[in-house]
């Protein structure tokens, strides 16, 4: 299944997406708020996991392409966090775009479409989004989506070692009633 905006197509993944996905996962600027860049093998494994969860859940992180050019620019969509935290179980909205796609409003546009899908088709009551405290770009997208932040929801990401500079995370929430 695919979702479309005037500029973007959120679609199932293709084998041809893998090389471009590996490029963006190897870009230190794109991966600044993650523990490390990914090797080609790690990136391919991530793509396989994303595809499996899309098939399993009926939603997931869709590949995002620019309609006008057909260019793959990253992913956006919904996912179930696979760790325990005070807010799980939950459905997360997330995105990761190639650096050349930044600054065009694509992340917000794709995320709005995924949020509409979460509420209109999946009938979810709430979605969440989280990132490292220092990720100002993603936090700006969360605010543009109308997500609410409460510092009481801040948490240390359980997959990162204690004291890791990226461990402190913020959580934003969006309820179906808020859209």
Report on this structure.
The protein is of the alpha+beta class and 179 residues long. Helices cover 28% and strands 26% of the residues. It has one domain: 3-Layer(aba) Sandwich (Aminopeptidase). Strand 3 and strand 4 form a beta hairpin. The strands form two sheets. The chain has a five-stranded antiparallel β-sheet with strand order 1-2-3-4-5, with helices on both faces. The two termini are 23 Å apart. The model has no long low-confidence stretch (mean pLDDT 96).
Question: How is the topology of this model organized?
Answer:
Layout: E1 3-4, E2 8-11, H1 17-25, H2 40-57, E3 61-66, E4 71-79, E5 92-97, H3 106-120, E6 126-132, H4 136-144, E7 148-149, E8 155-156, E9 168-175
Antiparallel strand pairs: 1-2, 2-3, 3-4, 4-5, 6-9, 7-9, 8-9
Helix pairs in contact: 1-2
């Amino acid at each position: 299944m695919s979702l479309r905006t005037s500029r973007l197509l959120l679609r199932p993944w293709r084998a041809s997406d893998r090389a471009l996905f590996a490029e963006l996962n190897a870009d230190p600027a794109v991966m600044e708020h993650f523990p490390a860049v990914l090797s080609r093998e790690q990136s391919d494994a991530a793509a396989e996991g994303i595809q499996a969860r899309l098939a399993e859940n009926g939603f997931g992180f869709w590949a995002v392409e620019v309609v006008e050019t057909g260019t793959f620019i990253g992913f956006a969509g919904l996912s179930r966090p696979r760790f325990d935290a005070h807010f799980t179980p939950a459905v997360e909205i997330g995105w990761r775009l190639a650096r050349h796609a930044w600054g065009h409003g694509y992340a917000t546009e794709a995320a709005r479409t995924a949020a509409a899908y979460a509420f209109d088709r999946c009938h979810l009551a709430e979605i969440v989004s989280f990132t490292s405290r220092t990720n100002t770009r993603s936090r700006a997208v969360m605010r543009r989506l109308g997500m609410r932040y409460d510092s009481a929801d801040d948490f240390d990401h359980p997959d990162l070692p204690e004291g890791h500079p990226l461990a402190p995370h913020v959580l934003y929430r969006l309820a179906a009633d808020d859209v």
